[in-house]
Amino acid sequence: MFVVTNTFQPAFTGISSSFFVIHQKCTLVEGLGTIVQGPTIENVTWEKLKGKVVVLEFWNTACGPCIQAIPHMNELVTQFSYRPVVFLCVSDDNQDHLKKFLGRKPIKGWVALDAPLKPTETAFAVVGIPHTVIVNRSGRIAAITHPALLKAQHLEEILAGNPSTLPAPKVVSTADAPVVMVSNSLPSTVQISIQGPFPQPKGAFNSRGWKASNCIFEARKALLQDVLAEFFRISPKLVFKETKLPKGLYDITAAGPPEQMPELERQFIEAVKKKWAIEVQIAARQVSVYAMTVGSTNAPGLRSVQKPGGGGEKPGGFFLGGQPMRSIASYLESSLDKPVVDETGLQGLWAADLKWEMSRWELLLHFAPDPAKVIEATRQQLGLELRPAFRTLPTVEIRAPK
How far, in Å, CA of 179 to CA of 137, rounded? Predict the structure, then answer.
């Protein structure tokens, strides 16, 4: 269940700011983008689902634990096929890619795509996947869990109107909180929260990003180096360490009014220094990179699209359904272990399907790919050139205090 409020409050008590909601009934159709498998989208509303238990499963095709949970969830769908229980999987994948995936690995129940900017995922405060939310017959959240922990007995409890014996989610709850939407209220003051370290959880972790008009930063169970890169919006390859960073995973929230972003950055740097006795400085530095430019305009693996789409890594490559060129550069950067600077000049959204040659042993042992093979595959399949170069770029420098 969610806290009911209409003002932003940061995560000072272990509560993600994603859990803050407004006094307003929410229909799924307001947030979902497309129904890939199931009834028409007009029939997927809380009003029409009232009287049924709804199991919402947030996942995508690039999430290993999500895929591992599919057979278990399919068994539950079969077991409750003649009961008032609806299973709805919500993904942020590209639609064509998702349909191909379902052809290879069927999912029973309904399957939907979230709308652009993932409003449904945001409304249910999803900070890592897989993430399962069970809504009871009255349209109120009864439990939040990992799909592997959900058993038939838990659904029987909720069907009978009893409290769930699933472990309670770590959020403040209220017995009368309905299924509601996340508030769009913006913070009125600069506020920083740092919690942790935490052990690595089962399933997805290391979630971080900006939201709410890019003035609220949230990281959940994240590595500090990745937090710093995301907060300052640079590549993790441009974080240079002269001292060791603390181990473990952290929950970090930083929020401020849009007109006070410089002050938010200053206070964030001070909070990091106070917490870990390390100094963070933004400085321009000449670094070795790959400059990404257009080599061919008719490559088979790259095409312009109108709608945003998901995707992710796959063995020896990646697939993106509808992303800006900077996202393609980011995926290439991860494989090449060196910053990739987008100098293509290409605007809009792009679908990219790239696969490079890797031996069986490289795949089994998770070896890093041969950069030459990645560069050649990128040239042939995406029509993009990757050339070694030096560029002066903003970097994050981390050192011990003087």
Answer: 11
